[in-house]
Design a protein that fits this description.
Length: 167
Amino acid sequence: MELEEWLRLYQALNVTAGGKERSYWTIAGIFLLANCLLVFPLSFIFFSYTGEGGRYFITVLAGIGVLLSISWAFSQKRASYEIVHFTRLLRSIEGQFAGAEFHRSLYRLLSGEEVCVPSTAWKCKEWHPDVARLGRLTRTLPHGLLPVLPIVFILTWTALAVAAWLA
């Protein structure tokens, strides 16, 4: 293939990979919002209904929450597989450009390695280039906690359904 064709392919895959990354975070945001919005009718039921009728409503809302969280977990897992697939495609195409790696810092960041971020520092009344390093917690926390969040919601909704019948 010619260089222009490789670059067009690389650009198309880069745009697609960016879209997949945005959809990953959009899925997380939408399902988190949906779970939080499910709390409003739940709080209304806690204050309005008591006894047997309230138990049934709470169980139904908890069941909806469990189904919502399960679908969140599956869609989030699928989106993460797509991100990994397109990242690997981009890395394989980068090998065609005589070893040049355009997304090397992103790859290092996602794999948990130390990444240097360019910054400037004010020294001796002048701006000088400096290197800011992302800490381990900053690098790994978002991608580490996001897959755990649907599981926490599943367990919480299940505990709420069980607690409604035990209380």
